[in-house]
Structures are given as C-alpha cells and as structure tokens.
Amino acid sequence: MLNRNGPVSDEMVRRVRRAAAELGYRAGGRAGNRRPAIGVLIPSITNPVFAASLSSIQNRALHAGHSVLIAQSNYDPAQEADAVASLLQQQPTGLILTVCDPERSPALSSALPPTVLLGNLPTARFTAAVATDNFGAGRDLTDHLLQKGHRRILFISGHFSASDRAKLRYLGYLKAMESAGLQPLDALEISFISSLGQLDLSDVVSQFCPTAIIASNDLLALGVMGALRRQGLSIPRDISVAGFDGISLGLLTEVSLTTVEIPDGTMGAAAASLLLDMAENAAPARHLTVPYRLRPGGTVRNLAIQS
Per-domain residue ranges for the chain? Predict the structure, then answer.
C-alpha cells in the first residue's frame, strides 16, 4: 500500500503512510530502532553547489526525524543505477535524485519509492521536481555579455551527456546569439571531474579568439580563469569570464565572478519538504521552479566603453 499498488484511496494511503512514519517503518523492512532515512544522489560531493543542497536537505530531514543517505555518480550515467541500488538497500523513505539526464537515466528505470528530482526537469513518469529555469539563465547571461559589447562568446562545459542543466544553459546561449543575429561558437566540452588546475585553453583561445567565455558552472569558471592567467592573459582586460550557480568562492577572487545565482540551498529544502509530504501524507507530486538572479561582477569587461 505504501507504494500505491492496487485500488486504494488517497485518504487511506495518507493514513497508512502517516502511521508508518510514526512507527519508523520503511517499505520492504520492518519497524524497529533504525531511524527512517532519505536517500540522496548527487553528481559530485566536491562541487559546493551540491554541498549547499545537501546541507538544506539534511536540516529539513533532521527536523522531520530522518537521517540522510548520500551517494554520488561522478557525472557518469552508468554509475547512477548502482548508486541508487545502494541507496535502496537501506530502505529509504524516499529519494532525492540529481541525475545526468532524467529522460535516459538507468537509475529511473526500476520501481522506486517516492522520488523527487532535484535540478532536473520532471518527466512523464517522475513528475515531482525542484529546478530552476536553466534555459532562461543561459539566455539572460548571454544577453548580459551582448549588452556589454561582446560578440565572440565561447561556451565551455562539462559533457552535455553528463548534465542536462549544462545543456539547457547552452541552449539558452544559442537562443540569445540567434536572437542577436550572431553566429554562435561551437561549445567546448570537457570532463566535469578533470583537474581544473591542468586545464589548458591555449589552443581554443587561438582558434576562436573569444572576447568572453561562459562556463557552465562557477567551479569550471574559476578553472577557466586560472587557465587564462597561466597563459598570461588578464581578466577581464583580455577575456571576460562568467558562470552559473553563485557559489561563495566566486566572491573571494581578485575580482568577483559574474554569475547567475541559483538558490541551491532553497532548492534542497524544497525538495526535502516535497518528498516528505509525498511519502508521509500521499501529497501529489509537484514541479517547483525556483527563480535565479544575475549577479554582475568584475570579471566581465564592458567593450562598449572605450578605454
């Protein structure tokens, strides 16, 4: 009944799930001394974005008497199914998943307990999701650079197959360039988990001669800035740089990073609240869109102003 197999009324499901939560029961297990838990899958524990989400999820879960189980996929779709299988062995109340691509993820092919996608858009089967408008964020950040006089804008990202968020941001970039009547540059895709300290952009800078670079997240943007400086280039005098996420590290550099702030902590708390409401009260699945905010910084030069 907890998995809603069979003709059971919503009211009955709510009563059973509420009683199960009070008893500490988990589907497939038995009542006992084990604390109920929420399973969370993220691409990487090293990216501050996911650390912010995890902190908010844990705070909300602890308030509800749940612990948090964590697994990571290393931005690898092939690892997602194994990671989710490991979480399911602990019989969680439900799952909060950030997958590479929800339409193709092998982790979403099996029967799952109540599940909320975090950062991903909902699918026909998994309609509970908390995300931001990554397409709009990519379009607006590109528009910001265009307004500053930039025309040769390069988009650098991890592999799009590893992040639908990055792909949507790139599609937003393409839309902005198209609307401005400009030819977009081919995106440079690299590994999300490569050592950014060894990133070499000398060939791509020589090939494309960009005046600005958009990175698909702030951590990558900081790596891009380091690579450009190793080439002897100045930011933003020689090349401007911008990113996405709004991590605090972007404010600690010599010049603050131009970025799109995405409230990852708010998204994590919202995902946890939605999951608990679905798991314990049989609440309907919902798609929540969290707003983003452009944060101009010192890493973008205004080419419209002659120096």
Answer: 10-132+263-292, 134-261
pLDDT tens digits, residue range 191-218? Answer: 887 777 788 999 999 999 999 999 999 9
Residue 122 to residues 61, 102, 257, 301: CA-CA distances in angstroms?
A: 22, 8, 30, 37
Per-residue pLDDT of 106-150, as tens digits, reads: 999 768 999 999 999 999 999 999 999 999 999 999 999 999 999
Residues 6+ apart with CB under 8 A from 207: none
CATH class of 10-132+263-292: alpha beta
First-to-last alpha carbon distance for the chain, in angstroms, is 69
In this structure, are residues 236 and 279 in contact, taking their beta carbons and an 8 Å threshold? no
pTM score > 0.70 for this model? yes
Q: Which residue has the tokens 């999951």?
A: 275
In 10 A of CB 57, how many CB atoms? Answer: 27
Superfamily of domain 134-261: Response regulator (3.40.50.2300)
